[in-house]
Amino acid sequence: MITLSSLQMKDIVYIEDGTKIGNLTDIEINVDIGKIINLVVATKTKVFGMFGESREIVIPWEHVMKIGHDVILVKKNGAFPTVQISPKDEDTATYQQ
Protein backbone atom coordinates (compact mmCIF):
# COMPACT_ATOMS: atom_id res chain seq x y z
CA MET A 1 0.00 0.00 0.00
CA ILE A 2 1.25 3.50 -0.88
CA THR A 3 0.09 6.62 0.93
CA LEU A 4 -0.21 10.11 -0.58
CA SER A 5 2.38 11.44 1.87
CA SER A 6 4.93 8.84 0.72
CA LEU A 7 4.22 9.67 -2.94
CA GLN A 8 4.75 13.38 -2.26
CA MET A 9 8.31 12.70 -1.13
CA LYS A 10 9.27 11.11 -4.46
CA ASP A 11 10.74 13.02 -7.42
CA ILE A 12 8.81 12.88 -10.69
CA VAL A 13 11.24 12.08 -13.53
CA TYR A 14 10.90 11.63 -17.31
CA ILE A 15 11.86 8.05 -18.17
CA GLU A 16 13.31 9.01 -21.58
CA ASP A 17 16.02 11.44 -20.46
CA GLY A 18 16.01 11.43 -16.65
CA THR A 19 14.90 15.06 -16.36
CA LYS A 20 13.35 15.88 -12.99
CA ILE A 21 9.91 17.46 -13.44
CA GLY A 22 9.16 18.28 -9.81
CA ASN A 23 7.31 16.86 -6.84
CA LEU A 24 3.81 15.48 -6.46
CA THR A 25 1.39 17.94 -4.89
CA ASP A 26 -1.95 16.25 -5.47
CA ILE A 27 -3.75 13.41 -7.22
CA GLU A 28 -7.09 13.40 -9.01
CA ILE A 29 -9.29 10.39 -8.33
CA ASN A 30 -12.47 9.30 -10.09
CA VAL A 31 -14.49 8.26 -7.06
CA ASP A 32 -17.16 6.56 -9.19
CA ILE A 33 -14.73 3.93 -10.44
CA GLY A 34 -12.10 4.22 -7.67
CA LYS A 35 -9.11 4.96 -9.93
CA ILE A 36 -6.42 7.60 -10.06
CA ILE A 37 -6.92 9.81 -13.12
CA ASN A 38 -4.07 12.38 -12.93
CA LEU A 39 -1.01 13.34 -10.93
CA VAL A 40 -0.55 17.04 -10.18
CA VAL A 41 3.13 17.99 -10.05
CA ALA A 42 4.59 21.29 -8.84
CA THR A 43 7.51 22.54 -10.91
CA LYS A 44 9.80 25.47 -10.38
CA THR A 45 11.32 27.12 -13.42
CA LYS A 46 14.15 29.61 -13.16
CA VAL A 47 14.24 32.88 -15.02
CA PHE A 48 17.77 34.22 -15.62
CA GLY A 49 19.00 31.54 -13.22
CA MET A 50 17.70 33.32 -10.14
CA PHE A 51 13.97 33.83 -9.88
CA GLY A 52 11.67 30.84 -9.63
CA GLU A 53 8.17 30.57 -11.03
CA SER A 54 5.88 27.85 -9.73
CA ARG A 55 3.61 25.92 -12.06
CA GLU A 56 1.58 22.76 -11.80
CA ILE A 57 1.69 20.07 -14.46
CA VAL A 58 -1.15 17.57 -14.78
CA ILE A 59 0.17 14.14 -15.80
CA PRO A 60 -2.34 11.48 -16.88
CA TRP A 61 -2.11 8.25 -14.89
CA GLU A 62 -1.54 6.33 -18.14
CA HIS A 63 1.87 8.07 -18.45
CA VAL A 64 3.11 6.71 -15.10
CA MET A 65 5.49 3.89 -15.98
CA LYS A 66 6.98 2.92 -12.60
CA ILE A 67 6.78 3.97 -8.97
CA GLY A 68 10.15 3.30 -7.39
CA HIS A 69 11.62 3.77 -3.94
CA ASP A 70 12.76 7.37 -4.58
CA VAL A 71 11.18 8.38 -7.91
CA ILE A 72 8.07 8.12 -10.04
CA LEU A 73 8.97 7.54 -13.69
CA VAL A 74 6.63 9.01 -16.31
CA LYS A 75 6.84 8.95 -20.09
CA LYS A 76 7.19 12.18 -22.02
CA ASN A 77 4.46 11.79 -24.61
CA GLY A 78 3.32 15.25 -25.64
CA ALA A 79 2.92 18.39 -23.59
CA PHE A 80 1.14 18.24 -20.26
CA PRO A 81 -1.22 21.08 -19.35
CA THR A 82 0.28 23.60 -16.93
CA VAL A 83 -1.37 25.92 -14.45
CA GLN A 84 0.31 28.99 -12.93
CA ILE A 85 0.39 29.01 -9.12
CA SER A 86 -0.07 32.37 -7.44
CA PRO A 87 2.66 33.08 -4.89
CA LYS A 88 1.85 32.61 -1.22
CA ASP A 89 2.81 35.05 1.48
CA GLU A 90 5.48 32.76 2.91
CA ASP A 91 6.99 32.22 -0.57
CA THR A 92 7.64 35.95 -1.04
CA ALA A 93 9.93 36.40 1.94
CA THR A 94 12.96 38.59 1.32
CA TYR A 95 16.41 37.68 2.51
CA GLN A 96 18.98 40.12 3.79
CA GLN A 97 22.70 39.61 4.18
Describe the overall structure:
It comes from Gracilibacillus kekensis. Mean pLDDT is 78; it is low at 89-97. Helix content is 5%, strand content 51%. A seven-stranded mixed beta sheet has the order 5-6-1-2-3-4-7. With 97 residues, it is mostly beta strands. The N and C termini lie far apart (46 Å). The chain has one domain (4-84): Roll (SH3 type barrels).
Short description:
With 97 residues, the chain is mostly beta strands. It is built from one helix and seven strands, in the order αβββββββ.
Give me the CATH superfamily: PRC-barrel domain
CATH-scheme architecture? Roll
Number of self-contained structural domains: 1
**How much helicity do the residues have?**
under 10%
Task: Count the beta strands.
Answer: 7
Largest sheet: 7 strands, mixed
- Rounded mean pLDDT is 78
CATH topology: SH3 type barrels
Protein name: Sporulation protein, YlmC/YmxH family
Organism: Gracilibacillus kekensis
Domain PRC-barrel: 13-75
Pfam families: PRC
